[in-house]
Design goal:
This protein has 318 residues and is of the alpha/beta class. It is 36% helix and 20% strand. The protein is globular.
């Protein structure tokens, strides 16, 4: 009897231990499943540059025509990427190209191709990132009663052949030229595509480096004339048509208005991670779409252009 009881107790103990073992195994399996599902190998939403640890300090210098776009875009970029600092300065396209070529700036902003300002060897070292199109308009003081100027009339003004508005259909008032320095990409574009020739700095003309200052002087000076990117136009000054064609986005995009250029952001070689991310942001929908900064500030997305222009100025349909 005792042997039978002991045998029964032994069998009960054996089943109990086996059950515990199965329970323990089940717990281990469950734990493994939980562990393997923790960092998923499935692709997830792309992490933000900030989450990926993007850091750096960038200096972008050069074209004052491009400066408003780069300046505002940089602030938006830094809000999304607190580890990156971007400083934007003007100084003209020549300055931007020289400084990026000599390693003094990370990005050289320019209205002109590097080959137009630098030696061929230095230009080859730079990588061109075209972020927009900018058009330049001849602008005058609002009191000037002239609404259109031909190419020849502009040449006559900027070479000093004509010095009074009465000779161009306006009032008897002296013409005051507000020009840009030789390093200016805006001046280079205006001379190349509006005048078709270089111009000299005439005695008595005003020369200013900043587009903002040019606008202010023209707005405050009777008889003044200069030229500005469309992004600077407002009610304080008056733009005049060129050979009967108004300076507006539609006429630039379809190729009927000729005074325009690409906006370049050059890097020396391929950009580093921070500069690459910023340049990609410049081409993102947030900046380039119809409600983006490019359009809002008066520039033209390159995607809207119906024509292309090469280094020599030749225009062809897309």
């Amino acid at each position: 009897m005792k042997k039978s009881l002991m045998l029964i107790m032994a069998m009960v103990l054996t089943f109990t231990l086996a059950a515990c073992g199965q329970a323990n195994n089940g717990g281990t399996t469950a734990g493994s499943a939980t562990s393997s599902s923790s960092p998923s190998t499935e692709p997830s939403a792309e992490p933000s540059a900030e989450a990926s640890g993007l850091t750096g300090s960038l200096l972008a210098t050069g074209s004052s025509a491009l400066q408003p776009l780069v300046d505002q875009a940089s602030k938006m970029f830094m809000e999304k990427n607190s580890g990156v600092t971007i400083q934007v300065q003007g100084g003209g396209s020549g300055t931007g190209l020289t400084q990026v070529s000599e390693g003094q700036a990370n990005i050289g902003n320019s209205d002109v191709y590097a080959e137009e300002k630098l030696d061929a060897d230095k230009a080859k070292e730079l990588v061109d990132h075209q972020v927009a199109v900018v058009a330049m308009a001849a602008v005058v003081n609002k009191a000037v009663k002239v609404d259109n100027l031909t190419k020849q009339q502009l040449v006559d003004i900027f070479t000093g052949k004509v010095t009074n508005w009465k000779d161009l259909g306006g009032d008897d008032a002296a013409i005051v030229i507000v020009n840009r320095p030789a390093s200016s990409g805006t001046r280079a574009t205006f001379e190349k595509y509006a005048l078709g020739q270089k111009s000299e700095d005439l005695q008595g003309s005003i020369q200013e480096d900043s587009s903002g200052t040019v606008k202010k002087i023209i707005g405050e000076t009777p008889g003044a004339i200069g030229y500005l990117a469309l992004s600077y136009l407002d009610d304080s000054i008056k733009s005049v048509s060129y050979d009967g064609v108004a300076a507006n986005v539609e006429n630039v995009a379809n190729g009927t208005y000729p005074v325009w250029a690409y906006e370049h952001m050059y890097t020396k070689g391929e950009p580093d991670a921070a500069a690459k991310a910023f340049l990609e942001y410049m081409m993102s929908d947030e900046i380039q779409n119809e409600k983006g900064l490019v359009v809002e500030l008066g520039y033209i997305p390159t995607s809207q252009m119906q024509v292309v222009r090469d280094l020599d100025g030749n225009i062809t349909k897309k």
